[in-house]
């Protein structure tokens, strides 16, 4: 549940409500990420993401290692849950 | 049997294990607090690499497991309402309440949706102004910043049809509760790395001093877990009790201050009932009064529900590290992931489900003698 997945920040922008949002690349899957809790993160940084929120920075080597481990443990399924309207209740996420 | 055959740093792991063997002189019991760490330990067979004197027991760090039956029944009562769109993380769907689970309720026509992030519920609320969108906000400190932001944004954006059913739990009070129990066997802790990414580890220092136990904040990789074990054993053998940080590449003593401040704006500490454990004082978060319009428990006025756990289930003892999955006569027999009796079998991070997933219920008699865990 407290799984956190490292991703590379590829876009940073304020949304229409002034929230610092962005997009991060998780080994090919790109998802929206809230960057409000990581004000010091810049484009190209790697962040540790939990349920769509960046909780801290990690270095690239650490990110690659963690990602490989999670892949082995088959714990990346939560990334397959669509971010949009979340209507696909059949998909299983594992936060 | 799968030990380290797929493990990349076997040589380094063996070095750490050898150092643990050199260090240990007597039996010690360490608790692995976090469910994710338990999963990693059982998957890689790390517990079986350790000398027999070092016993790893599994803790309460699985929010799906510890969410009380009463709260799950409340969730189900809310999800059944026709005006409600009930949103949840995927792994809550199969958790049995007193009656059904969310998947069954969905199959009977309720609008139950899996979301990746609580923030996604805001979009659903905006798109469905005539419906009430409720998010089942479970989790430890790691998840609180996300849930806090969802509620904050809902208020800021005037989304009156969004609320959360809060069942947040906190790690340090659960550690104190375990250590205060007369049944306690735990002498040291591997602390939860991602909870501490948010919270830092200052609040573990008084716990370590008060109960004279080592607490080593530990990461999630096999090597992290072995190193954390070594650090805890070194302290125990030296008669020390302090907080150490094995996961320093991610965790700082202060944690993420921005996230903590935000969580404190939205949530306040409250007593919380844990499944299998009972009520623990000041062990949860509830919404502050200012956010009462987004509090599903208040909005839906669900009556207190009288619940009953299956008698044969020992998940409460497993969650406190008193027993291990093997000790349960129902483990792998009447109780399996397809027919779970208790919560530690339902979530993949529950200790019973992890033991089952990696074949621990299939151990031969010789293996049991060799690996008495």
Total discrete domains of chain A: 1
Continuous helix count of chain A: 1
Q: Tell me the number of strands of chain A.
A: 5
Count every beta strand of chain B, where a strand is a DSSP E run of 2 or more residues.
11
Shape of chain A: globular
CATH class of chain A: Mainly Beta
Helix-strand string of chain A: EEEEEH
**Which two chains have the most extensive interface, and how many residues on each?**
A-B, 47 and 59 residues
**Largest sheet: spatial strand order of chain B:** 4-3-5-6-11-10
CATH topology of chain A: SH3 type barrels
Percent range of helical residues of chain B: 25-40%
Query: The biggest beta sheet of chain B, please?
Result: 6 strands, mixed
General shape of chain B: globular
Structural class of chain A: mainly beta
| Mean pLDDT reading of chain A | 80
Main sheet properties of chain A: 5 strands, antiparallel
Low-confidence stretches of chain B: 1-7
Question: What is the overall number of helices of chain B?
Answer: 18
- Name the average pLDDT of chain B: 91
Strand order of the largest sheet of chain A: 3-2-1-4-5
In brief:
The complex is a heterodimer of chains A (95) and B (373). Chain A is mainly beta and 95 residues long.
